[in-house]
Sequence to fold (225 residues):
Amino acid sequence: QQQVKQSPQSLIVQKGGISIINCAYENTAFDYFPWYQQFPGKGPALLIAIRPDVSEKKEGRFTISFNKSAKQFSLHIMDSQPGDSATYFCAASLNSGYALNFGKGTSLLVTP
Amino acid sequence: DAGITQSPRHKVTETGTPVTLRCHQTENHRYMYWYRQDPGHGLRLIHYSYGVKDTDKGEVSDGYSVSRSKTEDFLLTLESATSSQTSVYFCAITPDSNTGELFFGEGSRLTVL
Fold:
């Protein structure tokens, strides 16, 4: 039973455009929602994370929007660049990152 | 980069043979994890450890065992490898400061023929 559902599976965006990846969760006890970025041949690396006491968090071109009532959160990449081409995973956990439950991932391709 | 080393990085083996993957950390972190990554399934937790000799199962633990006799080493063993265990295996560690961030190794690609 997958606890975090991620969409879309793949995404193609032109350079300068906005990339949007969505995730939904079922367990209302989750209290930590990170996004990880993975380049081919590498392990995932933390990109940005949010806790449910805020509705939005921005770090540079990356923004998490969080909707607690809908049990959804999303990643927005503004001014997408070819270097952003990677696989993105959303995740959720009960206790600040321990035993993360990951979504299935979104393969993002940013075309020049 | 977090001090995580996985070995071997690549391995090809035959069905029915035992396989051990090693994760070594130089950070002295308490928590260590093994995940597997498969197309269409994302990252799934196999086992994790919260201290020396303290381990617990994740969502896909069947067919796997783990051991942690030292803080720095977390071993994942496939007692009798099957083709369904062909995957990329990632080790991860969490700082004791409870920042919530997992640091991943570079992965071990296992092919079971």
